[in-house]
Amino acid sequence: NAGVTQTPKFQVLKTGQSMTLQCAQDMNHNSMYWYRQDPGMGLRLIYYSASEGTTDKGEVPNGYNVSRLNKREFSLRLESAAPSQTSVYFCASSGDYLLTDTQYFGPGTRLTVL
Amino acid sequence: GNSVTQMEGPVTLSEEAFLTINCTYTATGYPSLFWYVQYPGEGLQLLLKATKADDKGSNKGFEATYRKETTSFHLEKGSVQVSDSAVYFCALSVGGSEKLVFGKGMKLTVNP
Q: Do residues B108 and B84 make contact, with C-beta atoms less than 8 angstroms apart?
Protein backbone atom coordinates (compact mmCIF):
# COMPACT_ATOMS: atom_id res chain seq x y z
CA ASN A 1 0.00 0.00 0.00
CA ALA A 2 1.97 3.01 -1.29
CA GLY A 3 -0.53 5.66 -0.15
CA VAL A 4 -0.16 8.86 -2.18
CA THR A 5 2.62 9.00 -4.76
CA GLN A 6 3.83 12.01 -6.73
CA THR A 7 6.10 12.39 -9.71
CA PRO A 8 8.52 13.95 -10.30
CA LYS A 9 10.23 14.73 -6.99
CA PHE A 10 12.18 17.65 -8.41
CA GLN A 11 11.81 19.75 -11.54
CA VAL A 12 13.45 22.84 -12.98
CA LEU A 13 11.62 24.75 -15.70
CA LYS A 14 12.29 27.86 -17.70
CA THR A 15 9.70 30.62 -17.79
CA GLY A 16 7.01 29.77 -20.32
CA GLN A 17 7.56 26.02 -20.33
CA SER A 18 4.74 23.67 -19.48
CA MET A 19 4.64 20.55 -17.35
CA THR A 20 2.28 18.18 -15.61
CA LEU A 21 2.65 16.98 -12.03
CA GLN A 22 1.28 13.51 -11.49
CA CYS A 23 -0.44 12.18 -8.38
CA ALA A 24 -1.92 8.76 -7.64
CA GLN A 25 -3.47 7.17 -4.56
CA ASP A 26 -4.22 3.54 -3.87
CA MET A 27 -6.56 4.00 -0.89
CA ASN A 28 -9.76 4.14 -2.95
CA HIS A 29 -10.37 7.69 -1.76
CA ASN A 30 -13.01 9.85 -3.39
CA SER A 31 -11.43 13.25 -2.79
CA MET A 32 -8.08 14.53 -3.96
CA TYR A 33 -6.30 17.88 -3.56
CA TRP A 34 -3.40 19.92 -4.85
CA TYR A 35 -1.62 22.37 -2.53
CA ARG A 36 1.36 24.60 -2.81
CA GLN A 37 3.67 25.33 0.11
CA ASP A 38 5.64 28.56 0.25
CA PRO A 39 7.80 29.89 3.08
CA GLY A 40 5.73 31.79 5.63
CA MET A 41 2.47 31.01 3.79
CA GLY A 42 1.59 27.55 5.01
CA LEU A 43 -0.28 25.34 2.56
CA ARG A 44 -2.70 26.88 0.10
CA LEU A 45 -5.25 24.88 -1.85
CA ILE A 46 -4.94 25.15 -5.62
CA TYR A 47 -7.65 22.75 -6.82
CA TYR A 48 -9.56 19.84 -5.43
CA SER A 49 -11.72 17.03 -6.70
CA ALA A 50 -14.53 15.73 -4.53
CA SER A 51 -15.14 12.74 -6.77
CA GLU A 52 -14.13 11.26 -10.09
CA GLY A 53 -15.22 13.60 -12.86
CA THR A 54 -15.48 16.75 -10.75
CA THR A 55 -12.96 19.48 -9.99
CA ASP A 56 -13.23 22.82 -8.21
CA LYS A 57 -11.01 25.81 -7.66
CA GLY A 58 -9.32 26.39 -4.36
CA GLU A 59 -7.68 29.50 -2.96
CA VAL A 60 -4.97 30.01 -5.63
CA PRO A 61 -6.05 28.41 -8.96
CA ASN A 62 -4.69 30.98 -11.40
CA GLY A 63 -2.05 29.59 -13.75
CA TYR A 64 -3.00 25.96 -13.12
CA ASN A 65 -5.31 23.34 -14.58
CA VAL A 66 -6.21 19.92 -13.24
CA SER A 67 -7.53 16.62 -14.52
CA ARG A 68 -9.14 13.88 -12.47
CA LEU A 69 -8.25 11.09 -14.84
CA ASN A 70 -9.95 8.37 -12.80
CA LYS A 71 -10.52 7.66 -9.13
CA ARG A 72 -6.81 7.03 -8.52
CA GLU A 73 -5.15 9.84 -10.43
CA PHE A 74 -5.27 13.64 -10.20
CA SER A 75 -2.82 15.68 -12.26
CA LEU A 76 -1.83 19.34 -12.06
CA ARG A 77 -0.73 21.19 -15.19
CA LEU A 78 1.20 24.41 -15.55
CA GLU A 79 0.60 25.64 -19.09
CA SER A 80 3.12 28.50 -19.06
CA ALA A 81 5.31 28.42 -15.97
CA ALA A 82 6.21 31.65 -14.17
CA PRO A 83 8.83 32.28 -11.46
CA SER A 84 5.96 32.94 -9.01
CA GLN A 85 5.06 29.26 -9.36
CA THR A 86 8.36 28.20 -7.78
CA SER A 87 7.12 26.20 -4.81
CA VAL A 88 6.72 22.78 -3.27
CA TYR A 89 3.57 21.07 -4.49
CA PHE A 90 1.70 18.48 -2.44
CA CYS A 91 -1.05 16.16 -3.49
CA ALA A 92 -3.42 14.73 -0.88
CA SER A 93 -6.45 12.47 -0.74
CA SER A 94 -9.24 11.77 1.70
CA GLY A 95 -11.73 8.96 2.07
CA ASP A 96 -15.30 10.11 2.34
CA TYR A 97 -17.67 12.87 3.37
CA LEU A 98 -17.48 12.42 7.12
CA LEU A 99 -16.68 15.61 9.00
CA THR A 100 -13.74 14.01 10.75
CA ASP A 101 -11.95 12.61 7.74
CA THR A 102 -8.20 12.79 7.41
CA GLN A 103 -6.15 13.92 4.45
CA TYR A 104 -3.16 11.80 3.42
CA PHE A 105 -0.29 13.61 1.74
CA GLY A 106 2.26 12.64 -0.87
CA PRO A 107 5.97 13.41 -0.47
CA GLY A 108 5.84 16.55 -2.62
CA THR A 109 7.33 17.92 -5.83
CA ARG A 110 9.88 20.70 -5.56
CA LEU A 111 9.50 22.96 -8.62
CA THR A 112 11.84 25.78 -9.58
CA VAL A 113 10.95 28.13 -12.41
CA LEU A 114 13.86 30.18 -13.71
CA GLY B 1 -14.40 33.38 6.73
CA ASN B 2 -12.45 30.49 8.17
CA SER B 3 -8.87 31.01 9.30
CA VAL B 4 -6.19 29.61 11.58
CA THR B 5 -3.58 31.62 13.44
CA GLN B 6 -0.65 29.84 15.01
CA MET B 7 2.77 30.60 16.42
CA GLU B 8 5.19 30.77 13.53
CA GLY B 9 8.59 30.37 15.15
CA PRO B 10 11.09 29.09 14.41
CA VAL B 11 11.54 27.67 17.87
CA THR B 12 14.59 25.87 19.22
CA LEU B 13 14.36 23.78 22.38
CA SER B 14 16.63 21.45 24.28
CA GLU B 15 15.74 17.79 24.57
CA GLU B 16 13.25 17.08 27.40
CA ALA B 17 11.91 20.65 27.39
CA PHE B 18 8.18 21.37 27.53
CA LEU B 19 6.55 22.40 24.28
CA THR B 20 3.48 24.55 23.65
CA ILE B 21 2.42 25.70 20.20
CA ASN B 22 -0.51 28.09 20.26
CA CYS B 23 -3.30 27.84 17.71
CA THR B 24 -6.50 29.88 17.53
CA TYR B 25 -9.18 29.76 14.89
CA THR B 26 -12.06 31.62 13.33
CA ALA B 27 -14.83 29.58 11.77
CA THR B 28 -18.26 30.28 10.34
CA GLY B 29 -19.55 26.90 11.46
CA TYR B 30 -18.57 24.22 13.96
CA PRO B 31 -15.10 23.07 12.93
CA SER B 32 -13.07 19.94 13.33
CA LEU B 33 -9.51 20.74 14.38
CA PHE B 34 -6.26 19.07 13.39
CA TRP B 35 -2.54 19.16 13.99
CA TYR B 36 -0.37 17.96 11.11
CA VAL B 37 3.39 17.41 11.27
CA GLN B 38 5.92 17.62 8.44
CA TYR B 39 9.27 15.95 9.02
CA PRO B 40 12.22 17.16 6.94
CA GLY B 41 11.88 16.24 3.28
CA GLU B 42 8.48 14.61 3.71
CA GLY B 43 4.81 15.36 3.18
CA LEU B 44 2.42 16.23 5.98
CA GLN B 45 0.94 13.57 8.20
CA LEU B 46 -1.86 13.78 10.72
CA LEU B 47 -0.62 14.06 14.29
CA LEU B 48 -3.95 14.34 16.12
CA LYS B 49 -7.46 15.71 15.74
CA ALA B 50 -10.58 16.65 17.71
CA THR B 51 -14.09 16.99 16.41
CA LYS B 52 -16.08 18.61 19.22
CA ALA B 53 -15.67 20.95 22.14
CA ASP B 54 -13.63 19.63 25.09
CA ASP B 55 -12.35 16.67 23.08
CA LYS B 56 -8.67 15.94 23.60
CA GLY B 57 -6.63 14.56 20.74
CA SER B 58 -3.40 12.73 21.59
CA ASN B 59 -0.64 10.88 19.78
CA LYS B 60 3.10 10.24 20.28
CA GLY B 61 3.04 12.13 23.60
CA PHE B 62 1.44 15.22 22.04
CA GLU B 63 -1.93 16.51 23.23
CA ALA B 64 -4.36 19.23 22.23
CA THR B 65 -7.77 20.12 23.66
CA TYR B 66 -10.58 21.68 21.63
CA ARG B 67 -11.56 24.84 23.54
CA LYS B 68 -14.64 26.39 22.02
CA GLU B 69 -14.85 29.24 24.56
CA THR B 70 -11.38 30.48 23.62
CA THR B 71 -11.46 29.18 20.00
CA SER B 72 -8.14 27.47 20.60
CA PHE B 73 -6.43 24.15 19.99
CA HIS B 74 -2.96 24.48 21.53
CA LEU B 75 -0.47 21.65 21.02
CA GLU B 76 1.58 20.45 24.03
CA LYS B 77 4.21 17.87 24.80
CA GLY B 78 5.79 17.40 28.19
CA SER B 79 9.25 16.31 27.07
CA VAL B 80 10.39 16.81 23.48
CA GLN B 81 12.92 14.62 21.71
CA VAL B 82 15.34 15.32 18.88
CA SER B 83 13.06 13.24 16.65
CA ASP B 84 10.25 15.80 17.19
CA SER B 85 12.13 18.33 15.06
CA ALA B 86 9.65 19.17 12.31
CA VAL B 87 7.18 21.77 11.09
CA TYR B 88 3.81 21.71 12.85
CA PHE B 89 0.60 22.91 11.20
CA CYS B 90 -2.73 23.64 12.84
CA ALA B 91 -5.75 23.21 10.55
CA LEU B 92 -9.55 23.15 10.53
CA SER B 93 -12.38 21.88 8.41
CA VAL B 94 -15.97 23.10 8.58
CA GLY B 95 -19.45 21.93 7.78
CA GLY B 96 -18.82 18.48 6.41
CA SER B 97 -16.28 19.76 3.91
CA GLU B 98 -13.12 17.75 3.61
CA LYS B 99 -11.20 20.86 2.65
CA LEU B 100 -8.67 22.00 5.20
CA VAL B 101 -7.64 25.53 6.12
CA PHE B 102 -4.06 25.58 7.41
CA GLY B 103 -2.10 27.89 9.64
CA LYS B 104 1.30 29.02 8.41
CA GLY B 105 3.22 26.35 10.26
CA MET B 106 5.85 26.46 12.98
CA LYS B 107 9.32 25.00 12.64
CA LEU B 108 10.60 23.26 15.76
CA THR B 109 14.21 22.23 16.25
CA VAL B 110 15.14 20.12 19.25
CA ASN B 111 18.81 19.97 20.20
CA PRO B 112 20.37 17.12 22.20
A: yes
Alpha-carbon distance of A34 to A89, in angstroms, equals: 7
Among residues B2, B11, B16, B7, the alpha carbon closest in space to that of B99 is found at B2
- Residue A99 pLDDT level (bands cut at 50, 70, 90): very low
Query: Which among A103, A77, A94 has a CA at the least distance from the CA of B38?
Result: A103
CB–CB of B98 and A90 under 8 A?
A: no
What span, in angstroms and rounded, lies between the C-alpha atoms of B15 and B10?
16
Residue from A67, A76, A90 nearest A3 by CA? A90
Interface test with A, best of B2, B98, B99, B102 (most A CBs within 10 A): B98
